[in-house]
Amino acid sequence: MVQIALESPLDQREVDRFCQEILPQVSRTFAISIRFLPGQLGRSVLCGYLLARIADTIEDDPKASVTAKSALLDQLINCFEDSSLADRYAQLTQSVSGDPAHLELVHQTHQVFTLYRSLPMQSQQTLQHWLTEMIVGMKKFVNLYPNGLRIQTLEEYKEYCYYVAGTVGYLLTDLWYEHSPFVSRENYQLLRKTCAEFGEALQTVNILKDIAWDAEEENAIYIPQDALVAHGSSHETLLDPNYLEQNHAAIKSLVALAWTDLDKSADYLTSLPRAALAIRLFCILPLMFAYATLRDITQSTAMLKKGGNVKITRAEVKALIMASPLTVISNGLVRGLIKRVRQSAFRLWF
Description:
Number of helices: 18
Structural class: mainly alpha
Oligomer: single chain
């Protein structure tokens, strides 16, 4: 049962503690990376991620009606302007269904907005701008597919990924420029050329590895219908074992898109000044995990079978956590690690 005590102001230290403690429950990879970001930059990125996760939980609710989802997404946008709405948001979201940790976060939206209002004004404006664009895009697709998301074309897929992930790339890049003395105006303009792909690449890899999960648990199919039809399948037969070969052929366009966007993401990382060490450390782990996961996706059909998905081994995760931070001081080392990970599972031999 959701407990709400909103009459007195929330203690900022308790709010910060809640946000830090809930993070690893809703994203293990992000929880590792964010530890590298100092001070207000780290708090701003943490807040942005949690607010995006709240919106994502509402969008992904497999049971809620379109009307209910749209209303909650609208209210979430309004919370940026009206703190009293954030205080009441837990009461509005008690019918939302999903993962227990994600629901706990949604029910504590008021705490995340308390963190938001403690951030520098420029950071608040950045989060409001990009998260509003994200949520408006989510609402568009919720209304477009009231019976469950069914992407029709590759262009529509790209539009969806821009809203839910490309916006994150822009949000992060704006925060780098605001908070890091090492990110000059010239460097900022360079980073903006590939920042959308940085977010979109990670999104596409996640979609590819969880094709079956999304279809079975969240009633969402991101593989474009026209690609499936072109290979003799459809959304209706996406997980049918009799169509495994056709479905595997159909996802190749998304696999190719993911490789292209990942390479642009590598350009994004190597365009960050080496002096901006904390930001480079933040970026490298999700990038390396994505390269490793996409490598395995190209060699697997597990994600196209009921109950299946693709995950890199714990051993490789640990090896990348140890090795990746050692490479960020050199673009050559970063490129070398990427080349190594693309070839086969990464190991530390000692």
